[in-house]
Amino acid sequence: MTIRDVATRPYADQKPGTSGLRKKVRVFQQENYAANFIQSVFDVIDGRDILVIGGDGRYFNREVIQIAIRMAAANGFARVVVGRGGILSTPAASHVIRLRKATGGLILSASHNPGGPDEDFGIKYNGTNGGPATEKVTDAIYARTKEIDRYRVVDADEIDLDTIGETHVGDMAVEVIDSVADYADLMESLFDFAAIRAMIAGGFTLSFDAMHAVTGPYATEILERRLGAAAGTVQNGVPLRDFGGHHPDPNLVHAHELYERMMGEAAPDFGAASDGDGDRNLIIGRGIFVSPSDSLAVLAANAHLAPAYSAGLAGIARSMPTSQAADRVAEALGIGLFETPTGWKFFGNLLDAGLVTICGEESAGTGSNHVREKDGVWAVLLWLNILASRKQSVAEILTEHWARFGRNYYARHDYEALPVDKADAVVGGLRDKLDRLAGIEVNGLRIASADDFSYLDQTDQSLSRHQGLRVLFDDGSRIVFRLSGTGTEGATLRVYLERYEPAGGDLGLAVGDALKPLIDAAEALAGIKVHTGRERPDVIT
Ligand code: G6P
Ligand code: ZN
């Protein structure tokens, strides 16, 4: 085996964001761009045992996997484990890393962003616990990308990624595994498949939109084969390199076909969708959308109905902008509630320390300690387990939940692809006056406090500052302003709006109506229209 040291020059823009390095494919296609980043990861991490590699099958996936395997061999890894066809959903990759006690893994995805030659790609490193590298590690990787002057690679023929089995590249073993089997077995060990199967056999109907992304094979195996759902339950189940030209983002805008089906006359009992790499979820009952924040709260309140969680939860974690619905559940259960910055990586330490069992984010992510990523199919199965156990509809479960805990009306308004200076003007302007806001009345609402959220991780004492501006009102309502860390074009401003209505209050309002006073208050506080010239958000979720 001949190892070559290839001279290279650093790129200045390889700073990992909320979820790894995410750029346009064309950026990744620049000379040595992917190789620089991968070498920087290898230079920073300890251990050269097993490296797991897999991606969501998007455009450029196979090319980068070929490079990564040859670089892993040159960098002294003992073994690479790769999903067949280069495919592993993000939660499945997390599971394989844990199952195989791997050094870590490279996950190739840009999640819910579109794919194709003019669209997005991404590389993320997950550590030995199966979770996204912590900020300490991603900062070190970034520092390394700024100095890198060579990468190591071996010359090898094109590696066959489509045949299950073992080959070698130099001294390193390359093991191609079934992308689905380990993950499907894990799901079967967590949930009461017999009860779900019986519910389905009894006439319960469901529809799962895989959005031509990675969950197609997973959902087909689990829902149709193992749980007996009718053929065709999984729609758009064949993963495509460009996701059929769509945004594989399971929200009401991009999964509108599913939404319309669920609101129609012949709606099935349950509808769900997942994103490009399989970590997000959308849950819709017949005639009712479940907001991700409510979904987290309902799952936490009912998780004990599934075998894996029958002993109860250690605690719940949510990202700061996620609604406080889960907080009420934690309070009722007498367990801890942790509020972290946006980004699944912040949950890893809490899960590893056993402080929490379930985590969730407003951005359609929910998961548990079974892996170290959020998990779309897992969320669907936990819902199905709960439905099978309670023998009620999604609407009944949600209504009963609000009647018990009160309702956190919630929406997120996104202003996408803003010029960076304009987005900074909104956030900077508000940040400058934050400490003068307490006690002031805006649009009839009195501000109790306002701050720039920072998070101290109690397991490793690391501090993350500037994680979003919070304005809290006397009545428990809240507005959060934050810039997205996952966009690849300009800046995206997110405004998160939340109003709490206690049990016994007005629980059946339309969300837009319930939030109207807060929407106006957000404008009065931040002057979004004035600074950006935008009349309305691009996306409301
Ligand atoms: C990814 C991350 C999530 C995060 C979401 C939104 O899906 O895995 O943890 O919540 O992006 O992040 P953003 O910075 O765009 O709001
Ligand atoms: Zn994703």
From TrEMBL:
GO terms for biological process: carbohydrate metabolic process. One of its GO terms (cellular component) is cytosol. Its EC number is 5.4.2.2. Its cofactor is Mg(2+). Pfam families: PGM1_C_vert_fung, PGM_PMM_I, PGM_PMM_II, PGM_PMM_III. Belongs to the phosphohexose mutase family. This is phosphoglucomutase (alpha-D-glucose-1,6-bisphosphate-dependent). It comes from Allosphingosinicella deserti.
